[in-house]
Structures are given as C-alpha cells and as structure tokens.
Amino acid sequence: MEQGKVFLTKEGHEKFRQELEELKRKLEEKIREEMPSSVSSEPDEEYISFQESLGQLRSRVKDLETVLNNCEVIDYNPRNHCRIVRVGCRVEIEHDGQKEELTIVGSLEANPDLKKISNESPIGKALMGHRPGDQVQIRSRTTQMFKIKRITYGV
Q1: Angle at which helices 10-34 and 45-69 pack, to 10 degrees?
Q2: CB-hemisphere CA count at 13 Å for 32?
Q3: DSSP 3-state assignment of 43?
Q4: For the segment 62-72, what is each residue's pLDDT rounded down to a tens digit?
Q5: Is the pTM of this model over 0.85?
C-alpha cells in the first residue's frame, strides 16, 4: 500500500482498528492450530497452502498498520467548520432541480452506493473549500453545475 496521509472518520478508524485486532488474532490461531506437523525436505501442498494463507493475512495486517499509522482521523468541531466543505461533512447539493446529500470521506471509506464520496473524486475535489450558496462547476465527460445548499458535520 502506498504510504501517505489518509483521512478516516472516527467510525472508519475504529472499523480498521478492529479488523487489525481480529486479523492478528486469526494469524496467531492459524500458526498455533493449523501449522503442518511435519515438514519434509520438499514442502507438500498443505504446507504451501498454509504459507500462502499466512502471507495473505500478514499482508493485510501490514496494510492496516500502514493505514492506521498514516491516517488523520476527521474530528471537526461543527461550530468552527460547518460553513465550508471539508472531509467529514455532509453536503446537500442541487443539480437540475434535484437535491442530493453526499458525505465527503477519505478514499478508503468511499462508497458511492451509500452516497459517501472521496475527497479525491472529481465531485469531492470540486466541492472542497466551498460554502453554501456557491455554484460549483464539475468537469468529467460533461460539465455540470452544482449548487451547495447546506453543509453539516457529524458523519
């Protein structure tokens, strides 16, 4: 995983922390309970499968440790930040008379099906730093105008 600052909500941070703890437990259990009892001069399929499984678990543990060691947990005080679009806010936008509410999150928590968009996505980038009432132009395959209606915090 590429190292660099990633943004996580408090909930996302907790989710990754719990996943890391669970994977470490699984790793210990796997070594204690599933290690092949004998290893011949040439590893058999059981041993190779065991090592591949350990490798996958260790890789995910390393990825999670990297995320947790390089993250910034989003913890904005709503009184100070509710007037500007930042990571961690919900923003109501209007486009062609349709209103939609999006949550701006870091890339690791993005889930368009849940209306959670990354601050690195075209829409997320365009909205960052703007205020309610601002017209924001978003360019992708076409150019679209969005109006920011409301910003709230407390993802």
Answers
A1: 160
A2: 6
A3: coil
A4: 999 999 999 98
A5: no
